[in-house]
Task: structure prediction
Amino acid sequence: MKEGDFLLIEFTGRVKLTGEIFDLSSEEEAKKQGIYNEKQKYGPGLVVIGAKMAMPGVEEQLKEMKPGEEREFDVPSGKAFGPRNPKMIKIVSIANFYRQDMNPVPGAMVNIDGRDCRIKTVSGGRVMVDFNHPLAGKDLLYRAKIIKKITDLKEKTDRLLDYYGLKCESLDQEKGILSVKTDKPIPPSFQKLFEQNIKKWIPEIKKISFSAKGKPKPEKKKP
Result:
């Protein structure tokens, strides 16, 4: 496989030391293992080689595989979620949580200033939070199977848009014109980002237009 190839893969990711499954594509297996989450979307996932949709250690293996091939392999922490960084462990005043109507509990995942973190300890009005990824510093074990290599332009487009949470309204393959419709308006900065990525990985698309079904709700004026 080479950069730019669109692959549809099935996968299961485990923590090597404990065997704990942290991610998988099979709904049936999730139910069997007792880790089914009704809010999670199951099914084969899209990986575009070179687009950083998979961690480096997984992408390296996919490059060596062929459609239909299944492989189990180790992914060292350095090629997964990276090493743990002590500087990413911070002390935050408990008042910050109370202002957001949050009760800090050790082990809980929370969002602070737009960043996810895990609460480590709560003591004396001080909360220790860890901004490291929960799997940082851990070696992983992966099983991956390439279901197929996607070559059809329409399927490439649909799969990539779905990855970004978008839907194709129409695609003129001859002229390379794509129309995307969303439920709510997308900020211009995100439209530009989506457009750059879509054109980069699907060069047949030359022009993209965005439209929204509804209008954003007007902000309520504070008294």
Q: What stands out?
A: The mean pLDDT is 91. The domain at 1-83+137-151 is CATH 3.10.50.40 (Chitinase A; domain 3).
